[in-house]
Amino acid sequence: MQPRNMSMSGVVDLAAVKAAQEAKAKAEQARAEAARHGGGGAVSPADLVIDVDEATFESDVLQRSTEVPVVIDFWAEWCQPCKQLSPVLERLAVEYNGRFLLAKIDVDANQMLMQQFGIQGIPAVFAVVAGQALPLFQGAAGEAQIRETLDQLVAVAEQRFGLTGLTVDPEAEPGVAQPPAQPAGPHEAALNAAAQALDAGDLGGAVRAYQNVLSDDPANPEAKLGLAQAELLQRVQGLDPQRVRKDAAEKPADPQAQIAAADLDLVGGHVEDAFGRLIDTVARTAGDDRDAVRLRLLELFEVVGADDPRVTAARRALARALF
To answer: pLDDT tens, 261-290?
Structure first.
């Protein structure tokens, strides 16, 4: 599976948002399950540093990244800077006590992974969080810089994705522990069917499936997110982007023109532009027009996620525009 680029404050990727929400829900479920069984799922300190290759990348990196941030150290035997950096990362992985997992990839033996990550030189260090790849640094780095980067990674993983890391037990036997089993939720089959419809481009089917879940469980976070995504993609289908942009530029006070442009902004990854456009339109309008713009903005908040700092900032700006 090819890794996707991710920035802590960059564009919105609908697949990434969905993966993040699912990862957060799974992490919370795993913690609750572990608590019910008196802990469990603990790993040995020796399991915090693993060797990964192309055959094990999906299971050891992508899947594990839904429970803990995975830091990837791309190295080679002939690389002298790698021999200085790798021991530091290995020591810090143990010191951070499960807040991240270190995966070591030999680029000579795994050329495909090197190409997929777009690596031009080594050492190169990436992170994968909830299935999304994030470049950390390339080349030599001091320990203070590495610690600062890791602290930021750990904080973002916890705040935005609910990933608090692994439980480490010094007495645990290396390679024995398994993560707690994840019980299927009551709507698991329906949500899987809805997600498959969304991935296949059957937006109408996805909308209906998510609505069915919400009719039975109105607060279901995965269904709310999926429905918001499907409806957004439905709205932009068939739009002529050039025409939409032209209308929005010529009619700054027209709520429907600005709403259509904001939808395109968000799908194109211009999150702040989408939010700012609608907040400005709220300030220019009144009555039913203002309500229509405000409601669309709230729908876009659902797509991006309530925990995203751009949503928090936009909510404050919306409050100022309204009051």
So the answer is: 999 999 988 999 999 999 999 999 999 999
Active site residue 79: yes
- Helix, strand, or coil here: 126? strand
Out of 82, 105, 198, 266, which one is annotated catalytic?
Answer: 82
pLDDT at 34: 47
Catalytic residue among 79, 94, 214, 292: 79
Per residue in 37-54, pLDDT (tens digit) is: 444 468 889 999 999 999
Exposure string (b/e) for 102-135, b if CB count within 10 Å is 16 or more? bbbbbbeebeebbeebebeebbbbbbbbbbbbbb
The one-letter amino acid code at 120 reads Q
> Checking DSSP bridges between strand 70-75 and strand 124-129, what pairing results, if any?
antiparallel
Tokens of 24: 């957060």
Q: Any catalytic annotation for residue 82? A: yes
